[in-house]
Structure formats: structure tokens, C-alpha cells
């Protein structure tokens, strides 16, 4: 019996781990139906939503925005707003913010931009000259803080992010390597361990899509012209795990799907195990926190003290 490897006579643009090769139009159809199936399978959206999309201006978040924009045009009960965080990373974020603005202008999507400089008084580049910490640690803490706070203030019902299957597999392995199962319990297509008024539920529509698929979709649809990477990426633990995973995927196609599928089987047990543990309110800023003072306030205080010492 012949195994059909090409979807049709058109030139293929991408091969799936199964070996099947898809042409441009069959790939777009495959990708979009996978994302909409993910939304249905994991019940990521309700019938009525005022949804925010965390827009970095990179391929993943533009892909999510493009697809949720399509959905909102078909369904007037789904309203969308893009939220961009400008951390202040010279030569990188300025470019991606421009891409985000251009996309939102062309597609008539409301875009709100919030910056570290305005909210915390310093850009990330300035913070890193004062505090000698890993860039992604402090960047991630302030970004999650701002995204949640601003989404709540804008009365958004959910916040969609561009996290894809590769990102999730990296997080699963990183948490294993750090022996941090509680962090893994917060993963999944719907983020978090419990519902709380102070938290805006985060969802990941690209949960089952690989990085390669999201990149291919973004470029085929001309969502962006060039690929820009944050200059701090190479310093991160995540980048090392990413390279290791890509090497395994090249040697053993399907590795990423296997990690994801096995994780989805244990995720309900992890959520059950770690469901206790009340969410506290930060004594300084009133934002939700797992400790008496949230990490954003701890780093803001460290920055303030260093600045005073330097004067
Ligand atoms: Fe921030 Fe690190 Fe992402 Fe750069 S790679 S934007 S420093 S989290
Ligand atoms: Zn705080």
C-alpha cells in the first residue's frame, strides 16, 4: 500500500512529524483548524468575551491576534484589545512595538501600550545597569505584573498569549530541572491554579502548535517581515533548554508532542495536588502575590535602594 506523503500536487511548505508534507493552502487550513480546535477542546473562550491579546510584535502573538481578530469578526460577542508592554530594550522592543502598531492600524484593532519607563520609572536596559540579575528574571516579573494589572483595569475577561507548544515543553523541562512542580501545576492551556478576581485568566490558543508551524503561518500570511530576537535571549536558561529540545526533535521527530501529551495526562493531578495555598495580596501594591510582598515590589525596592546608594 502507498503511503501518501504530499497533501496535493502543490509545492510543500512544511513537513509534519508524521512525514506528511503540506502545501501553502493546506498548511494554513491545517494550522487554523488546529488553533480553533484547541480553543474548543480546552474551552478557552466563552460565548461572550472582552479578550486581551498580549502583543509583543513577534510571530506568535501576531498569529494569535490575527486568528482572534478573524473570530471576533465572525462573532460580535467576542471583542478584542491588543496590549503591548514596552520593556525598554534598545534595538529590539522599539522595532517590535512598531510592527505591533502597524498591524493594529491596518486591521483596526485597539492597541494599548504600557512601558516600564512610565510604570516603574526605568527601562529594562536601565534596570540591568543597576541590578546584576539575569535579564529574563526581572523582565518576566515586571511584564506579568503589568499585563495582569492593566488587563484587570481594562476589564478584560481573559488574556491570550502567544505561547506555543515549544514554549510549554521548555517550561515543563525547566520546572523538572529546578524541581518546581508547583510551577508546572500552573501551566497548561489555561494558566493558573485557581480563579481569583485579582487575576485575569490567561489562555494559550497556540498550545498545540509548534514554533515552526507558528513561524510558517506568520510568514505565509505576511504578519511580519523580519525575525527579531531579544538580545538578552542567549543568556537565558530557556534558550539552552530550547536548543536541547530542538536537537532531540531533529533526532527523534515527535519528541515535543510526546512531552506535551504526557504532561497533559498528569496536569489534572498536579493541579489537584497544589490547589491549596491561598493567594495573598501584596502589602505594598495590593496586587495578587504568593508572598506578603510581590516580586515586582521586591525588585522595585531593590532598584530604589541601589539608586539611593549610587547618589
Ligand atoms: Fe525579556 Fe528575556 Fe524575553 Fe528579552 S528574552 S523580552 S529580557 S524575558
Ligand atoms: Zn506588590
Protein topology:
Blueprint: E1 12-15, E2 21-23, H1 24-41, E3 49-54, H2 59-74, E4 78-86, H3 93-107, E5 111-115, H4 116-120, H5 124-130, H6 135-153, E6 158-160, H7 165-177, H8 181-185, E7 201-203, H9 211-220, H10 237-251, H11 255-273, E8 280-281, E9 288-289, H12 295-310
Helix pairs in contact: 1-9, 2-9, 7-10, 7-11
Walk me through what this model shows.
By secondary structure, the protein is of the alpha/beta class. It has twelve helices and nine strands. The strands form three sheets. Strands 5-4-3-6-7 form a five-stranded parallel sheet, with helices on both faces. β8 and β9 form a beta hairpin. α7 crosses α11 (255-273). It starts with 11 loop residues before the first strand and ends with a helix. It binds iron/sulfur cluster and zinc ion. Iron/sulfur cluster (SF4) is lined by residues 87, 135-136, 139-140, 230, 232-233, 236.
Amino acid at each position: 500500500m502507498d503511503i501518501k506523503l504530499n497533501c496535493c500536487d502543490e509545492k510543500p511548505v512544511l513537513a509534519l512529524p508524521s512525514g506528511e508534507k503540506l502545501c501553502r493552502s493546506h498548511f494554513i487550513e491545517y494550522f487554523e483548524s488546529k488553533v480553533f480546535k484547541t480553543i474548543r477542546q480546552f474551552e478557552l473562550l466563552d460565548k461572550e468575551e472582552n479578550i486581551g491579546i498580549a502583543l509583543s510584535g513577534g510571530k506568535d502573538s501576531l498569529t494569535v491576534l490575527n486568528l482572534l481578530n478573524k473570530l471576533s469578526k465572525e462573532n460580535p460577542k467576542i471583542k478584542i484589545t491588543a496590549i503591548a508592554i514596552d520593556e525598554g530594550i534598545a534595538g529590539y522592543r522599539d522595532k517590535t512595538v512598531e510592527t505591533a502598531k502597524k498591524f493594529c492600524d491596518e486591521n483596526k484593532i485597539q492597541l494599548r501600550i504600557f512601558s516600564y519607563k512610565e510604570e516603574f520609572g526605568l527601562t529594562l536596559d536601565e534596570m540591568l545597569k543597576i541590578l546584576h540579575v539575569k535579564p529574563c528574571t526581572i523582565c518576566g516579573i515586571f511584564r506579568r505584573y503589568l499585563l495582569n494589572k492593566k488587563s484587570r483595569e481594562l476589564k478584560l475577561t481573559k488574556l491570550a498569549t502567544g505561547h506555543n507548544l515549544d514554549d510549554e515543553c521548555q517550561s515543563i523541562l525547566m520546572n523538572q530541572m529546578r524541581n518546581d512542580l508547583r510551577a508546572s501545576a500552573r501551566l497548561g492551556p489555561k494558566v493558573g491554579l485557581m480563579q481569583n478576581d485579582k487575576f485575569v485568566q490567561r489562555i494559550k490558543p497556540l498550545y498545540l502548535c509548534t514554533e515552526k508551524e507558528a513561524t510558517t503561518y506568520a510568514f505565509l500570511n505576511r504578519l511580519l517581515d523580519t525575525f527579531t530576537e531579544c538580545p538578552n535571549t542567549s543568556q537565558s536558561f530557556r534558550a539552552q533548554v530550547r536548543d536541547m529540545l530542538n536537537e532531540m526533535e531533529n533526532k527523534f521527530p515527535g519528541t515535543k508532542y510526546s512531552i506535551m501529551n504526557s504532561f497533559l495526562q498528569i496536569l489534572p493531578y498536579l493541579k489537584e495536588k497544589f490547589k491549596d495555598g491561598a493567594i495573598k495580596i501584596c502589602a505594598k501594591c495590593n496586587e495578587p502575590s504568593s508572598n506578603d510582598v510581590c516580586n515586582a515590589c521586591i525588585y522595585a525596592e531593590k532598584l530604589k535602594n541601589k539608586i539611593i546608594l549610587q547618589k
